[in-house]
Amino acid sequence: MNAVVATSVFAVFMVAAVVLGLLALRGRGKGGGLAEWSVGGRSLGPVFIWVLMAGEGYTSFSYLGAAGWGYNYGAPVLYVVAYMSCGYAIGYVVGPMLWGYARRHGLVGITDMVAHRFGRPWLGAVVAVLATVFLLPYIQLQITGMGVVLSVISYGAVSLNWAYFVAFAVTTGFVVVSGLRGSAWVSVLKDVLVIATLGFLALYVPLHYFDGYGPFLDRLVTEKSDWLTLPGHGGGGSGGSGLGELWFISTTVLNSLTVVIFPTTVAGYLGARNADALRRNAMYLPAYNVLLFVPMLLGLAALFVVPGLAGAESNLALFKLVVDSLPAWAVGVIGVAAGLSSIVPMAVFMLVIGTMWGRSVLSLVPRLAERQKSAAQVVVVVAGGLALLLTYTAPNTLVRLSLISYEGMAQLLPMVLLALVWRRLTFRGVFSGLIVGVAVVCVLVFSGNDPLGGVNAGLVALAANLAVALAVTFAGPRDADPRPDAEVLADDPVGDEDEPLAPTRTARGASDHRV
Q1: pLDDT 10s digits, 265-311
Q2: How many C-beta neighbours within 10 Å does residue 421 have?
Q3: Which of 77, 79, 226, 365 is the most exposed place for a label (fewest CB within 10 A)?
Q4: Cα–Cα distance for residue pair 299/379, rounded to 1 Å
Q5: Alpha carbons 173 and 511: distance in angstroms, whole number
Q6: Distance between CA 96 and CA 339 in Å, rounded?
Q7: Radius of gyration of the chain (CA)
Q8: Within the chain, what is the greatest distance between any pair of CA atoms?
Q9: This prediction's pTM
Q10: In this structure, what DSSP letter does residue 241 have?
């Protein structure tokens, strides 16, 4: 009976989410073109941008992974709060700059920006392929996360295999039809449920299991003090996790820089109505990080309530507390919040991959150049299907690859960001640096040397990337690009936010600026 009640609640809310996404398209004609589908027609106001970007950052693994890391290690999990807060501060400057550059030239993503900056459409295609490699694990992780949530809240009645398929089917159908605007609308529902459920659990768990915060924190300090300092539980010594102070600082620095040029973050930037919406958003978003403390805290509480969880089971720490003590309808509602926390970011990941391929790869084929939106929608289905297939057949492949997702994406920083503010940086320089950076990341991660001497391997690779990019730039010839700085470089769009939107470029149009 519990399984029927919980899964019924889950199903009703999933249907409501899909309907809400469809309602977002009212008054938008037949869905518009690629810009309407991929960046919401660049018309989303501060509220929708806030919930969309908060939703993209707060995933089902914030329920599972944050609680699991809190259960296993303790203090090191706080790096998530640190890098996201620092990233929002950097985004206050970077977000409006990228928004203005894309608006001025009619661009819809980082692959467009790279192709336009260096005048090479094929470079956008290369970046699209590379970014897909680093984004695809996130789709697989969200499918896994939502599948685990659905299986647990159904009290095992829904198998993991069926739960994975439900996650894929709901999200793929949703994003193909509704695009970024639909994701923003569903984010409102998701955020209401997330705030309500985590607020409830933050009060309920300490009171129910420990008679209040005082006894809970007293036990935590007395019995689990290793979890409260870096490098966390089991982190010391030569065989430890290596999650000490250097790792914490280097990971915070790397991730806070990387998150502002992450393709999904940039999709949120470009959906804004104006740059002021992004500036206000950057000031308000850190408040959402307060919610991240709740699953971390509940993971620590689970140490006393459900001890002995090992390996992947630790990711179920929060839901073990929920299923064991709450009525089925409440379990279903919490499962919906976690499920929507998977659907929203997964939808944005899939949408971004589809946009990159439809815009920068498939559009290089003459027959597809004028059908970018339909090509992008096909890619969404293919990317989601591939992630689902690998979830079934080779889950460890993408799990291992996810280790280098952020570190690998960080290697695009010179090409995407530095090149937009420094004209002297050459194509040969950034391309050489990118090759070196990605190679160093792969070698360090897959050889088991991440972190390296306590430092995040991605930051080591980025340092090598920048060194090579600068050396090749200064040693080689300048790019023979006749365009003025205003055409090539980005700046803060203060005062010119009401300029008319440039027509969206096609791949052929972008190719007119070769160097």
Answers
A1: 898 888 888 889 899 888 888 888 888 899 899 999 999 999 988 87
A2: 12
A3: 365
A4: 37
A5: 33
A6: 31
A7: 23
A8: 73
A9: 0.85
A10: -
